């Protein structure tokens, strides 16, 4: 990499690792062949990660003469913590709807045969109906999505289950747009730091 009129006085690392943010089986195979690591999307579910993501990565790695252990992997997890667990779920459902409405993520919904939910998600988003978005994510979806959502106690229990899937978990907190006020954005970050700060995690 050469940038005119720019000089780095010391080299941070000899080689910059390339992580692929991919979802479909074909792209996961590609990542397994050539990437240094994979960053899973927040739309990924527990079953999709185990049954689609990991096997596709392993197949791609094997095609390139590598092992799955040669790749670094991380999962992104939608994180909304609130002492009002119902409010956290409503807000998280709106964000999951925002992501799942994209056709690139319909493969995950189709994998689970969540046809009714897919229709509800698309219709709610087209109508920009926040109430409908909040209810479009069904109970069976909540049992599968990789999300840390609810009260602090609920999130602690969810964390124990999610952290077993991958050695690296990226906590993705929604940005202050799309219906989430700046005040709620700050409150959520404060709760995340309170719950996942070094001192809190050791206690």
How is this structure best described in words?
With 203 residues, this protein is α/β, with parallel strands linked by helices. Strands 1, 2, 3, 4 and 5 form a 5-stranded parallel β-sheet that branches. Helix content is 52%, strand content 12%. The chain has 10 helices and 5 strands. It has helices spanning 25-34, 46-63, 85-100, 106-112, 115-126, 130-136, 139-142, 152-162, 182-196, 198-202, and strands at residues 19-20, 37-40, 72-81, 147-150, 169-172.
Quick take:
The chain is α/β, with parallel strands linked by helices and 203 residues long. Helix content is 52%, strand content 12%.
What is the secondary structure topology, with strand pairs?
Elements: E1 19-20, H1 25-34, E2 37-40, H2 46-63, E3 72-81, H3 85-100, H4 106-112, H5 115-126, H6 130-136, H7 139-142, E4 147-150, H8 152-162, E5 169-172, H9 182-196, H10 198-202
Parallel strand pairs: 1-2, 2-3, 3-4, 3-5
Helix pairs in contact: 1-2, 3-6, 5-6
């Amino acid at each position: 990499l050469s940038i005119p009129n720019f000089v780095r006085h010391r080299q941070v690392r000899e080689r910059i690792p390339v992580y692929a943010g991919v979802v479909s089986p074909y792209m996961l195979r590609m990542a397994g062949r050539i990437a240094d690591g994979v960053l899973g999307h927040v739309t990924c579910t527990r079953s999709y990660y185990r049954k689609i993501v990991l096997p596709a990565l392993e197949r791609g790695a094997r095609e390139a003469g590598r092992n799955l252990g040669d790749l670094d992997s991380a999962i992104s997890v939608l994180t909304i913590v609130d002492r009002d667990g119902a409010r956290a779920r409503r807000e998280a459902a709106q964000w999951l709807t925002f992501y799942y409405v994209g056709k690139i993520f319909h493969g995950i919904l189709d994998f689970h045969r969540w046809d009714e939910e897919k229709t509800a998600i698309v219709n709610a988003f087209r109508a920009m109906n926040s109430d409908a978005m909040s209810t479009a994510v069904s109970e069976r979806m909540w049992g599968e999505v990789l999300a840390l959502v609810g009260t602090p106690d609920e999130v602690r229990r969810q964390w124990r289950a999610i952290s077993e899937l991958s050695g690296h978990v990226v906590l993705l907190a929604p940005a202050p747009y799309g219906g989430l006020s700046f005040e709620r954005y700050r409150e959520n970050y404060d709760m995340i730091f309170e719950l996942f700060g070094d001192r809190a995690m050791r206690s």
